[in-house]
Amino acid sequence: MENKIKVGLMAYGMSGKIFHAPFFANHQGFDLVAITERSKNEAAKDYPGVRIYRDVDSLLADDTLELIVVNTPNYTHYEFAKAALNAGKHVLIEKPFSVVKAEAEELFSLAFRKGLKVMAYHNRRFDSDFMAVQKVVKSGKLGRIIEAHIRFDRYRNEISPKAFKENPVPGAGIFYDLGSHMIDQAIALFGIPSEFHKTYGKYRADSEVDDFAQAHLKYPTGLNVYVTTNMLVVKQHAAYTFYGTTGTLTKYRTDEQENQLNAGVKLTDQQYGKEKPNQEGHLYTLDADGNVVEELLPAETGNYRLLFDEVYNAIRGDGSYFVNQNDVLGQLSILEK
């Protein structure tokens, strides 16, 4: 493809190595040109020929780059995104987009004035489990949805060695980490709530950041959405449980993309994005006689590549992007403390 977008990554930790570099390197619309890696040399081994910079300033000074990926610790997102925009680059920002809403508003305003794109990286909209749930919601089979529960849990009782996740700095804690995914999914499904209430907790020994959080989102229709994330869940619950006037939906978190990418599965592998067998969701409705009918939901194929198609379209195509400015600002209104 002609007129490829030349890309630079700000970091090459898990996010850069797993969620960004392989997708840019395998997309015909992008050219992965440069990566910031402060001390290690893993990027050079994985992508020979890619320019390696030891600091962000050098990356931003590279005039050949058109798109910068801000995949650094949460509290740096605003500062680095602003610097990239001022350097004349389009920007893709890892979740959370920023720590507070006011920072996001400033970034959108700056991008508009400079004629650039600043985009939120929300790959979980392309998880197989979420795509299956979204299809059912759009079908109307649940009727008027009254109550919805979205969970993202883990079991990690120890304190992570990653200081930026465990130190009480802006943007730290499980709600910014995993909650941002679920808030974005709730907004994608139901829109921005009219009001919300939040609860936080610290339950691991010596934890300085929240490791439990729940947000109760209220909508004018009467819909109540409960978003919950907990780092001390030994036995996983269903990730999605929705109750409507004509049906009930349950679906576990079954997307395999992160596991596959960590295991070295290539994007070209026929099994990429496919769920393991017998992981279908369950839809319960009533027949004409009032009997409960159970339907297994066919598995969708997860596909983070679609996000990169969206990024390309935003820069080279019609300018639209699947996570819009109102989505981001609405999400941060809920996330910020």
From TrEMBL:
Residues 5-122 form the Gfo/Idh/MocA-like oxidoreductase N-terminal domain. GO terms for molecular function: nucleotide binding; oxidoreductase activity. Pfam families: GFO_IDH_MocA (PF01408), GFO_IDH_MocA_C3 (PF22725). SUPFAM superfamilies: NAD(P)-binding Rossmann-fold domains. Residues 130-249 form the GFO/IDH/MocA-like oxidoreductase domain. InterPro entries: Gfo/Idh/MocA-like_OxRdtase_N (IPR000683), Gfo/Idh/MocA_oxidoreduct (IPR051317), GFO_IDH_MocA-like_dom (IPR055170), NAD(P)-bd_dom_sf (IPR036291). Keywords: Oxidoreductase. Belongs to the Gfo/Idh/MocA family. This is Oxidoreductase. It comes from Pedobacter cryophilus.
